[in-house]
Amino acid sequence: TYAPKLILLDISDINCIRDVAKEILNCYGCVDILINNASMKVKGAVQSISLELDKKIMDANYFGPITLTKAILPNMISRRTGQIVLINSIQGKIGIPFRAAYAASKHAAVGFFDCLRAEMEEFDISVSTVNPTYICSYHRQPAPGNWEASIWK
Questions:
Q1: Sequence-ordered list of residues with C-beta below 8 angstroms from that of 81, at least 6 positions apart, any chain
Q2: How many Å apart are CA 137 and CA 119, to the nearest integer?
Q3: How confident is the model at residue 153 (pLDDT cuts 50, 70, 90)?
Q4: Which residue, among 22, 23, 59, 25, has the nearest Cα to 40 in the 3D structure?
Q5: Cα angle vertex 130, ends 68, 142, to 5°?
Q6: Whole-angstrom Cα distance, residue 39 to residue 62?
Q7: Of 9, 53, 76, 93, which has the maximum CB count within 10 A?
């Protein structure tokens, strides 16, 4: 039995993810189940969402989970056991208006984890993707001109 340890991670900060994974592995030795559940979304017309915000959404919803997964994966492969779960979104399967950046990031994640599932079968590592329908998320009302506040976390 291990005492719980709180480790803070901003999944959109790709540069710190490997260090956090290393800290987790150093502390516990392994990860049996990795649940990727962090997400960011924004609502707006394609022409009104900046490329900067598109990239931030992609970092949080695609590059973040795959970077963390790739950091933990070698340990699972060496032990030939483990389970990786992606909590994604129904918008990873269908796109709806005013959610282009979010839907694109979720589509990309589904594609990655579908491929990973096939590749990990030989190592007895289970990879699952859960695509729930709409959920109520925390949302801040943005101040005028503050696009970051329009992000749903």
A1: 32, 124, 125
A2: 33
A3: very low
A4: 59
A5: 75
A6: 9
A7: 76
Whether 151 is covered by a domain: the verdict is no
For 85-107, what is each residue's pLDDT tens digit? Answer: 999 988 878 888 999 999 999 99
| Residue 25 lies inside a defined structural domain of this protein | no
Among 2, 102, 134, 138, the active-site one is 102
Global pTM reads 0.84
CB within 8 Å of 59: residues ≥ 6 apart: 12, 13, 14
The structural domain count of the chain equals 1
Q: Is 54 a domain residue?
A: yes
| Residue 102 known to be catalytic | yes
Q: Which tokens hold the place of 15?
A: 């540069």
What is the SS3 assignment for 2-36? CCCCCCCCCCCCHHHHHHHHHHHHHHHCCCCEEEE
Q: Which domain holds residue 58?
A: 31-130
